[in-house]
Amino acid sequence: MGLRLRFNLILATCYLLCLGLSVVLFYQISRREAMEQLQSQIDLLRAQALSVRRYTSEEIQPLLADQSSLQFLPQTIPSFSAQTAFRNFRDFYPQFFYKEAALNPTNPADLAKDWERDIINRLRADPQLDKDVSIRTTDTGAHYTVTYPLVIKSASCLECHSTPEKAPPSMVALYGPKNGFGWKLNETIGAQIISVPMSVAESRIWRNLALFVGASAIVFLFLMALLNVMLNRYVISPVMRMAKTAEAVSMGDASVPEFEYAGSDEIASLSRSFNRMRRSLDSAMSMLDK
Ligand code: HEC
Asked: How far is the C-alpha of 109 from the C-alpha of 101, rounded, in Å?
């Protein structure tokens, strides 16, 4: 195997090994960053939903309390307004998702689905958990989903959610006496579920990875080409010329000119030694001839 081939093979193997390792590392770091970005989107959406909730209970509810006792107005309920506002938000971002799901909801539309029920039960089983993070694959691709427990922290909630007798009659008239009752203080009755699509983050990870591999390949190919040129110029070509001279000398051809290689590198020192050896050989030969 020639020197050049050996060098190239060793370098290419090293490059591929390093590339593989750094691609894995790069992917993991990019993915972690993408997750952090998705989590900050979720934080933003949650803050938005909580703001709508607060606006409803602080501004709307007191205004419409009298009217709601005659004819119940769901618009005065924070959960209703937060979810309705988010439905409007989805006109702009249809892949984003927000739901206040409950195991026993007042509004049947808020009933937890299978997977939602599993998460709520997990949060109920461990009240220390402040959220549940999962990645779900749906028809529209993977979604980053964070679920926050909805815990009854205030006794005022139980005015409407303990028994139909305690609840405002106008509310029972609208929603019926069956659902959304029997909730207890400090009980996790449901969860705030927020999902954001991962497609943008994922395609960004792959694009960055492709850029990284492409850029490193260009640098590697350039360095390989440079190394080959230098190897050829400073090592292979002088060694081949020296070999040719040595071959001619060994065949008894004394007419070949001295090997010339200027410089102060190892090849130059080798060529000087070679020429010295040749001169000694020549004089030894001429002494023999006498
Ligand atoms: C005035 C009565 C009333 C009070 C007080 C009240 N709620 Fe509700 N709550 C409702 C009604 C009615 C709905 C259904 C709204 C709809 O149609 O989406 C509801 C819905 C909910 C939902 C969504 C799931 C479901 O049952 O449909 C959650 C969660 C919730 N309430 C939590 C609370 C919490 C927590 C409190 C206390 C801070 C509270 N509620 C206080 C009447 C009330």
From this structure: 9
